[in-house]
């Protein structure tokens, strides 16, 4: 009996419920499982390591028989989380681990009639996996060529169809998890129900593409090349293909004929060294092709020998070399995370190597060559983080036929939280390209209380827009999963940045019991597309529908039958991109609503909030031009704001009526006018009018980004900074001063987004030394060190064990204070002094630091706690400098 006949007999006779319908969406989560060992460690091919001797165990036998015998026969396994729409299979816990030992999972898919299905295979963390459908090899991943996800078409026959999955019991890396998902999606369901979103190109490429699965991607010199060619449509019809191998000089160094879904060996001569390109072509249809790269030799050494002379060239942009060096470190980064290096990452590295090799052969020049000139229209760049704790990676995909003289739309893509150091590719770019927009793939993790990451991402977005020929009225963002909250958050923080937002599965990070729906007002002029899944394990579709309905330019799709990664792979499509690109930002809207998330995100179009009244309350500003030319302003919890008024563009008369909270005044306007309005406690307001040139107005109006000077104490942490630990902090780890120093160095509790601030001992620190970062100095006012006293004198701060004096106010008794100052010798640097004088305030100080991400107190430039309450100080950007300082003090009872 053949293996396939044996498997078909098993699924037909077992009493276990392992049969799924192929006529509807199905996640395969119930299996017959057993283990088997390879008869030879060197054996490799397209067949499973199975025999026909294993039988179906009865229930009592799984308990009574010895464990090794149970493993050798078939028994039932069901995914633990199937009822939570998380159809992850983890059968490994049922088996003892051993080298060359694999687990086999078998189930049956029954169809009422012959049909085509899109099959999604996900391993979550890249791992070896092989899949057979009706005995035909469909997926072939090995320890040396691992997969993360793979989509293919399958022709399911009428009646039963066997699905067999192989996964090893032992990995070569100590991966945190080993799991897989197999999902079947009837093709007609996608084309009929979701035709507006699913790309026909995805299906067409599955019909035409050949996938090449080499046993290894990295080969030793002289090693035999072994691979399998598999059609991306599994139809149980073996086809003859011709395999060709080319070296880096594009010389044909080997070829042979083979059948699809069978192992092929190719013996290569001495010309097989360095990067090799392997192609496959179907003999009956030469439009059906596939390609993959492998490397013969020591890749890291070859890359290093390539980069070393490039560092000496005059015509290479230093950023290009930095990017190449960072790419070189990628494999080690995966290994440090105890993960395999995925096959698609190796392919990216191989392509970068090939581009650098071509560039090496070009004569040196004087004009520096950019990323695009070296790597082509698709490249990954690395920018240093302003916080000095590493680099941020982003991948740019320029349009086909990119023309620097033309302005293009830009689409940013934030992927999910599984990606923390290297951006993930838009799914449809694997089978298609575009000439419509510049695509930028970034790391954008939302749903986190990390204000530093928000600032860093905002800075990088603006920097990228300044770098390319961009149509500023057509900037967009796509967010998948936790990338969606980041997209919404940046959109709400910078309301005049995005013309459109597409969110895939993820939602806004709003409070559960008291949702901040006023933030949605910031997206009044932004087109929003929301793709919603009812089969998700932590996003509620009704919640997402609720806030989408509050957006005037939002459209939503409720999609059933697609699991989380499949949802993105299928629906994050080129068609979705086309629907997003329809939206265009209105340049001068007649009505603007702004509800700042924090005081530093304070601008939207032609309004800007320059000061919030009470930092502990929500604030909002609504400005509207009436048909008669009247400007009406409604301000809540606002102390002052600014209007940037282009008279012609907003269709305003030279003399208008300006109403602020019902108080109306006539105002004269020039072509471009800046109005600074300050509200008084009695409801009246004062006005300061300034005239702007067209260039001045354009610069102010187009300015997008965070107003860092209004971040208060938090500003210290958006650049590199060092905590100068006082004497004694190193002696006792349990001491208060050590705990405080630790919290000041690690203010953000959520460590999912990596960050690192430096620290040093006071004895190692030189106040006069030039530096780039900010300084944080905890001071025990009862016993300050000599160097601390010198710094306090230089800053003009008066404090001791008995009292603190700050701008004429004296605080006696127990206290602690946070005071942000400017470095007197280097005005671009900040110094944060954290002073305390009594152990009775230590507990309150530690509690406050544990609320660092959420407490509005840190929006101030200084505050003092004196036991009775908090006294807050805000000022201009020259805080505590010796010129034009102004202060406001407010007592807030208690701590919240």
Which secondary structure elements does this structure contain, and how are they paired or packed?
Elements (H helix, E strand, L loop, with lengths): L2 H11 L5 E3 L4 E2 L2 E8 L23 H4 L2 H6 L2 E4 L22 E11 L3 E13 L2 E4 L2 E5 L6 E10 L2 E10 L12 E6 H7 L6 H9 L1 E5 L3 E2 L5 E7 L1 E2 L5 E7 L5 E8 L3 E4 L7 E9 L6 E8 L2 H12 L7 H11 L1 H7 L6 H18 L10 H5 L2 E7 L6 E7 L10 E7 L23 E5 L8 H17 L2 E11 L2 H11 L6 E5 L22 E7 L7 H8 L5 E6 L4 H8 L2 H8 L9 E4 L8 E2 L2 E6 L7 E6 L5 E6 L1 E9 L8 E6 L2 E6 L3 E8 L5 E7 L2 H9 L18 E5 L10 H10 L12 E4 L12 E7 L5 H10 L2 E2 L3 E4 L2 E4 L3 E7 L7 E7 L5 H8 L12 E4 L3 E6 L13 E6 L3
Parallel strand pairs: 1-5, 9-15, 13-20, 23-24, 23-25, 25-26, 26-27, 27-28, 33-35, 39-40, 39-41, 41-46
Antiparallel strand pairs: 2-11, 3-4, 3-5, 5-10, 6-9, 6-11, 7-8, 7-10, 12-14, 14-18, 16-17, 16-19, 19-20, 21-22, 22-24, 29-32, 30-31, 31-34, 32-33, 34-37, 35-36, 37-38, 42-43, 43-44, 45-46, 45-47, 47-48, 48-49
Helix pairs in contact: 6-7, 6-9, 17-19
Question: Could you explain how this protein is built, in words?
Answer:
With 896 residues, this protein is of the alpha+beta class. It has six domains: 3-208, Jelly Rolls (Sandwich), CATH 2.60.120; 212-296, Macroglobulin (MG2) domain (Immunoglobulin-like); 313-376; 378-581, Rossmann fold (3-Layer(aba) Sandwich); 591-710, no CATH class; 712-893, Chitobiase, domain 2 (2-Layer Sandwich). The strands form nine sheets. Strands 21-22-24-23-25-26-27-28 form an eight-stranded mixed β-sheet, with helices on both faces. A hairpin with a 5-residue loop joins β16 and β17 (252-259). α6 runs parallel beside α9 (343-360). The longest helix has 18 residues, at 343-360. The chain starts with a helix and ends with a strand.
